[in-house]
Every structure is written in C-alpha cells, then in structure tokens.
C-alpha cells in the first residue's frame, strides 16, 4: 500500500440538509506493515462559512494526494430562495401570486434531475435540491406546502421570521460552501434574483470550474444576465414550471410591433404615499 496512513477526525457539516454520506473506510493494512496510527486534528478549510463540528469517531484514511478532490462524489445542487422568488413573482405580474401562478416544484424537480443525465452512467452525479424559507409567526397553509416539497424530494431549511430583516441568505451560502467540501460540486442551480448576496460568491465558484446556473425572472436578474461567468435561464423557460403563461411582458421577448407594459399600482396611490413620506 502506498502512502502513509493517518487517523483524522471525521468532520460533520451542520448543513440544512444534513451531513453528506460517509465515505467508505479504507481496507486495513497487513499487521506486519501497518505503522502506528498518529491522531491528528482536522482543520477547517479556508473560507468555510458554515459551522463544522468534530465527532469522536475516527476513520483511517490515506495521506491526501494532489487530486484528492476527484475522490469526492460529484453533486448537482439546486438552491431555491423562496422569499426572493415569491417577492419577484409578485413584482413581475403586478399582483399577489395565486395557486395558479406559483411555480410547480414537481416539474422543476424533473427538469433539474433530467439535466443531471443517466443515473446509471459511471460518472452520474448525486442530486440534491434544497428550498430555503422564512416561516412567519402565523404558519397557516405553509405546513402543507413544506410537506408537499418534501414529498417531491426537496430538503427544506425553514427559519422563523420574527423580525422584518430576518433572512436566510447566509444559510444558503453556508450550505453551498459545505457542499463544496463534502462533494465535488459539478453543477449549481440557484433560483434567486438576489444579486446583492449571490453575484460575487457565485462568480467565484464558477471560476473554480463549477457550472453555475441562475434561474430567476429576467426583469430582476441583471446580475446574472450581464455576467460572463454565470448562465442564466428565465424561470418561465423551465418546461412546465407554470401551469399557464404568466401575465408579464418580457423585454427580452418583445413582439416586433412592441407591447404595452401596464402599471403595477395606481398612479394616485403612489403619489399619495410619496406625499405622505415627504411630509412625515
């Protein structure tokens, strides 16, 4: 057996979707050739943003090689920013979303998994889809929605929203970071139009060789459309994502004769609110 053997603590990520599957243990060496195991402490990789805990069990592993990353399982990961998609959907259709105008998670799951390729292929990646949601004090029908998502195969990270500025942006970035260390992240699909939080970290990840795809509404995803590193898909172009076409006019798909874009709020209401803010 080449290379020296060491014992190192197995690291468990405290990620929303739980720890990655444990890697298979290396075969034990012959008694007469085995060196004395040396316990070492695992160090956190540079840039790790998610908290990582160390468990007491130890596993015998070979000394890391320069291409150690190739030994990690390949992964296609989907991240869904529920607050952002819901808010931007309201913006583009100019109304509160209804059951008929909300995205169909079953169709989106099928589209995502289909793009991962044949699961029987030798190089087939694992697939994981995670929805991140803020849960208000009055849960209402959200429990049924969460259970439906879980039934479709999505992991759900739910955080209470007790303050107006409570958000799950950092939780999403933390989970992506964890998966870059537990797996070889082959493809990352992010459903979010939030360029303020995602533009820089996603471009950094794309530079490492991961295929990064942003799926959002073109009206609010300028950061992805203008990027030379990120791929962009309008969410309505995902097959079956909506039961019926949305009531919107896309500037990237205008008819030759042009189109009217109606206001999303009353002119009098806007002026009334604007005047009230100025006088307060």
From TrEMBL:
<dbReference type="GO" id="GO:0004540">
    <property type="term" value="F:RNA nuclease activity"/>
</dbReference>
<feature type="compositionally biased region" description="Basic residues">
    <location>
        <begin position="1"/>
        <end position="11"/>
    </location>
</feature>
<feature type="region of interest" description="Disordered">
    <location>
        <begin position="1"/>
        <end position="72"/>
    </location>
</feature>
<feature type="domain" description="NYN">
    <location>
        <begin position="79"/>
        <end position="219"/>
    </location>
</feature>
<dbReference type="InterPro" id="IPR021139">
    <property type="entry name" value="NYN"/>
</dbReference>
<feature type="compositionally biased region" description="Polar residues">
    <location>
        <begin position="44"/>
        <end position="63"/>
    </location>
</feature>
<protein>
    <submittedName>
        <fullName>NYN domain-containing protein</fullName>
    </submittedName>
</protein>
<feature type="compositionally biased region" description="Pro residues">
    <location>
        <begin position="17"/>
        <end position="38"/>
    </location>
</feature>
<dbReference type="Pfam" id="PF01936">
    <property type="entry name" value="NYN"/>
</dbReference>
């Amino acid at each position: 057996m080449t290379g020296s053997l060491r014992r190192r603590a197995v690291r468990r990520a405290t990620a929303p979707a739980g720890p990655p599957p444990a890697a298979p243990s290396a075969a034990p060496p012959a008694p007469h050739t085995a060196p004395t195991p040396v316990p070492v402490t695992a160090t956190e990789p540079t840039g790790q943003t998610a908290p990582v805990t160390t468990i007491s069990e130890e596993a015998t592993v070979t000394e890391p090689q320069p291409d150690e990353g190739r030994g990690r399982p390949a992964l296609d990961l989907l991240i869904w920013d529920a607050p952002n998609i819901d808010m931007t959907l309201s913006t583009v259709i100019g109304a509160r979303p209804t059951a008929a105008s909300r995205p169909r998670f079953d169709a989106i799951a099928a589209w995502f998994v289909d793009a991962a390729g044949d699961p029987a292929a030798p190089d087939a990646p694992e697939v994981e889809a995670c929805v991140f949601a803020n849960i208000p004090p009055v849960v209402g029908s959200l429990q049924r929605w969460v259970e439906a998502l879980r039934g479709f195969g999505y992991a759900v990270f739910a955080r209470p929203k007790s303050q107006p500025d409570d958000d799950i942006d950092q939780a999403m970035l933390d989970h992506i970071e964890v998966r870059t260390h537990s797996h070889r992240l082959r493809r990352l699909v992010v459903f979010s139009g939030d360029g303020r939080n995602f533009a820089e970290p996603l471009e950094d990840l794309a530079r490492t060789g991961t295929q990064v795809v942003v799926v959002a509404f073109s009206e609010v995803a300028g950061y992805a459309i203008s990027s030379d590193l990120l791929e962009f898909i309008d969410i309505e172009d995902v097959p079956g994502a909506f039961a019926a076409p949305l009531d919107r006019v896309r500037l990237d798909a205008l008819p030759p004769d042009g189109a009217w874009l109606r206001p999303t709020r009353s002119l009098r209401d806007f002026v009334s609110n604007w005047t009230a803010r100025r006088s307060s």
